[in-house]
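[Meeting: bench + compute handoff]

Bench side (C.D.) handed over the final construct sequence. Compute side (W.E.) agreed to return the predicted structure before the next meeting so the bench team could plan truncations. Sequence as handed over:
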Amino acid sequence: MYPYFKTASNAWHSSVRHNLYADGGFITRGRSSLWPYKAYWYIHPSNIERFKRGDFTPSSKIENSSVGNKRDKHKSPYTQLIAKVMLASGKTKLTLNEIYEQVRLRT
């Protein structure tokens, strides 16, 4: 999918983190038992079917933000990447470290 992530430094982690927080397609809830200081990330339930159809346009968080006018209908490659690895993992929740690991494994 994205071979860059297998050999690149970890600088891309901040882009993944930013997209998780900025795109309303993802939510965070609860804490991991293995990583008690880390929350679990989920695909927002209202976006699961949308992501499965391949629609990765930003959700309301981006569209309603101060930069929303510039980014409406912008398809973030990171949103697409995160959604695809989360759906492919078969898990309903992942910690941030698990998302990074899945990106490396599935690219």
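W.E. noted at the follow-up: Residues 4-106 form one domain. C.D. will use this when planning the next construct.
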